[in-house]
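Tokens for Na+ dependent nucleoside transporter C-terminus-domain-containing protein. Go.
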Amino acid sequence: MTERVPDQRCRDSHAIEHDAERGPSQNDIENGGGEGNISDEYSKPGSTRRRSLKKIYLQCRLPIHFLVWAVWTAWWVFGLVHYRNSNDLGWLKPTLVYICITLRILTLWMPARVFFRPIELVWHHTALRVYTVVPPRLHQPCAALASVAIVLTAVLAPPDNTSSSSSGGNENTRANRAISLFGLAVMVALLTATSRDWRRIPWHTVIGGMLGQFLVALFVLRTHVGYEVFSFISSLARTLLGFAEDGVAFLTTNEVASLSWFLVGVVPPIVFFVSLVQMLFYLGLLQWFIRYFSVIFFWSLRVSGAEAVVAAATPFIGQGESAMLIRPLVSRLTLAELHQVMVCGFATISGSVLVAYVGLGLDAQALVSSCVMSIPASLAVSKMRFPETDETLTGDRAVDPLAAASGDGTGEDDEQDGETKATNALHAFAKGAWLGIRIAGMVVSTLLCIIALVSLCNGVLTWWGKYWGLGLGLGLGSADGGRSGASPPLTLELILGYLLYPVAWLLGVPGPDVFRVAQLVGIKIVENEYVAFNALTTQEVYANMGARSKLIATYACCGFGNFGSLGTQIGVLTQLAPRRAGDVSRVALSALFSGVLATLTSASVAGMLYNGS
């Protein structure tokens, strides 16, 4: 396949964004066309009033939008004045909200190329000039050398942080950061060696994805602004958790709502978040974010339009559900694209469980940043493990998630699924509540069965191990080499701790905590990430781990890469494309392996950049 010139791809994505973002004309809207602002429900009997309200809105939407923007502008200006002398960047949060609202209102009236044009001009007069001067055969080597130089400088330049006031103590040394860097190199080498066709690996995507992952971590872990931005996002997750607690308190009591039970602290936030996502999806706000994120991935990493949409949507709506945004395209995806769709789901977690995990007391900034970091990493890892060898349907164009999710617009897909489209935002919220109950029920039942199965395996292994002297105080198999005179019983966690010991060491975990972090990673793969996170926050054996070890463990477990999710993704994709069931099963195990490695690369990068400050 020939290499696409960056400025040509930029023009392609801008043209597509213009088509997707152009506002519907008056005739389009009145005839039921446009971007789905008026659906077929308005042509049904009894919809005259709604149609009249819609016409009034269309005639007055300019002053309405201006009034909304003016109110938010006044709010933003007041925030700037109020926090002008603040030392904790208090002005940053309202500024971020104001920018998002302003961009959303402007894109209702202007094509996207108006905003991308300045970026394109800067690109043409800076990076593209350097790009054209360098001979084509040296493009990738030069990009690789520049990326390596950036990484080495950021990892090895800072001095050791061994002060007593540091939260990491003497763990945050150049040696430990260098081990994390070495671990990342080992994972890249492993993926290249086990690649389906290493000669076809798109190194532009790999370098861009890994560099994007590194820059996000650098922004979060080494800059005050980055820390505050992700702290603001994580505070929103905590706020959502509090709203769900209010609902539980109404149904029960305040005492019950404050309990740290799974059914009380985790299930209600999942139901509420799914409901909220469905309402935002109906209003078109979620598609707007996904659309622009997908264009960034499409243009910068040179992936197909379908892959870009799934990658952008996965942190918001999770594995399986993100594939629904490209539902009409699933049956026509190549094997590499199917692999990529599954890897994105395994590499990160969704917002619905993120708010629940924040309630466990985990580092919220680490969870949020890991979700973002693992997306470009999943694109890079998947392309190393399973590079594209076929012609893709959306290789040269971005995909509008709103149009793709709606299929051909006939509604036949919804009728076949036995579901009806939401008629308004409240209906969408109610449908989301029911969907949230189903998802939460699946999570609860899966946890119950997996934990019970692991307990069964542990019971059998413990019984079998007693005849070898394990668990009888003979010192065999103990994590301290038998110095304590006692040995733990033979369990699945013990076996995984030894099997994954090299992996935990390569992540840069300090020596005393390597075995425990290896056990957590093993629990996450065999059971799921919630069991691992719950063990990290509640079990005494992990309570005295260092700050560096806990941070790396949080990043390493922040993904859906486990055997239970393997069945979930196979089931969803085979429902969307029954004829591709064999292909989905064919790439599933490779996708799980790649998704787990993508999550581990985020942990490795976090270990490279964390210095305890």
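The CA atoms of residues 328 and 407 lie 6 Å apart.
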